[in-house]
Amino acid sequence: MPRLLTLLLLPFAWLYAVGMAVRNWLYDSGWKPATRFATVPVLSVGNLRVGGTGKTPHVAWLVEQLCQQGQQPAILSRGYGRRTRGFRLASTTETATTLGDEPLQQFMHFQEQVPVAVCEDRLAGLHELLRQSPAVTIVVLDDAYQHRQVRPDFSVLLTEQQRPFYHDYVLPAGRLRESRAGAARADVVVVTKCSPALTISEQTAIRQQIWRYSRPAVPVLFSTYVYGSPVPIVTVNNSAETVYSAEIVLLTGIAQPGPLRDYLLKAGYHLVHHAEFADHHRFTVQEIAAVKAHCEPGRRIFTTQKDAARLLDPALHTEIAGLPVFYIPIAVEFLADGADRLRQLLPAAIQPQAVV
After folding, report:
1. What is the tens place of the pLDDT at every residue in 250-276?
2. DSSP state, 120?
3. Beta pairing partners, 336
4. Taking CA atoms, which of 110, 126, 211, 349 is between 20 and 30 Å from 6?
């Protein structure tokens, strides 16, 4: 049935692909203006597929590397899921409702050391970000691969090992935002969520598939997730004296909770309940109360760092106060020499090429 549904939707996908191809041609040919900044370079991170490729942890990795290279980076996102509009520069008063869960997660991760802003108009957002944060030396655009109004100096394209763009179709037949040919705009392609045991021959086969659509011999790197120890979201009374069992309740509102669930099971945890919601889901008091009902003495509630940003919303504070709620941090780790190669490529992103 899924295969039949894909075939039935292909004509609509072709129409969508043609529309996106025309749009891209207008930008590539100069009929639609694309601004490149002269004084501050712009690094874009995004994907061809809708959701779930690991943009947030990869943006964090890139920002950390830029900081180590002596840059003062900033992050600009659309702020998906927020209930506000226009430009907002993150501060300690923001919530996931006003800023978006992923930008708030980045702001909390970097402890105010990196400016994080949101704006649905990326060009206007860049101008305002640089006006309010003049010390910024490079801007990382989060989830901006299809935002052609701004021409980045360096583009990072992400694609999952298990769901590569070259095996997918354009919406609505598949999950691609544009055709596979869009990979040609990437300066580097990172294959994400890889098995640490991915062999050299498997990497070579993936590269060959990607090079069918990207520029010739564009660097193709491979990354995986590394999970950290549970981090408490709120302080639990007498938590140091609490004896926890291996029984956990999992709460997720992300696109693909499977890898985290598999990790927890392999780590020896016993999953007694999984409250699974759609990506960017806005939790309600009733939903948290239902999760709380499964948290018997000794059990912990585990969630993701992105979900934790939404759980800190003031409307939910009373429900999670005193609960043993922990998020599982994730970090990006590259296979083989991928990290060194990407670090060597980053200086190319710090060389602006034209005047606004």
Report:
1. 999 998 899 999 999 999 999 999 999
2. S
3. none
4. 211
CATH, range 2-71+137-226+334-350? 3.40.50
Written as six digits, the tokens of 349 are 């992103």
Spatial separation of the C-alpha atoms in residues 44 and 154, rounded to whole Å? 6
Output the pTM of the full model: 0.91
CATH architecture of the domain formed by 229-328: 3-Layer(aba) Sandwich (3.40)
State the Cα–Cα distance between residues 53 and 127, nearest whole angstrom: 28
What pairs with residue 333 in β-bridges? 224
Distance of CA 176 to the CA centre of its chain: 16
How deeply is 248 buried, as exposed, middle or buried, from its count of CB atoms within 10 A (0-12, 13-18, 19+)?
buried
Say which amino acid occupies 76: L
From the list 154, 199, 145, 194, the residue with the least C-alpha distance to 344 is 154
Q: Structural domain boundaries of the chain?
A: 2-71+137-226+334-350, 229-328
Each residue's pLDDT tens digit, 62-105: 999 999 999 999 999 999 889 999 999 999 999 999 999 999 99
Ordered DSSP codes for 206-236: HHHHHHTTSSTT--EEEEEEEE---EESSPP
Q: In the structure encoding, which two tokens stand for residue 193, read together? A: 């969520």
Residue spans of beta strands (DSSP E) within the chain: 42-47, 73-77, 88-89, 116-118, 138-142, 154-160, 188-192, 220-227, 231-232, 247-252, 270-276, 300-304, 325-328, 330-334
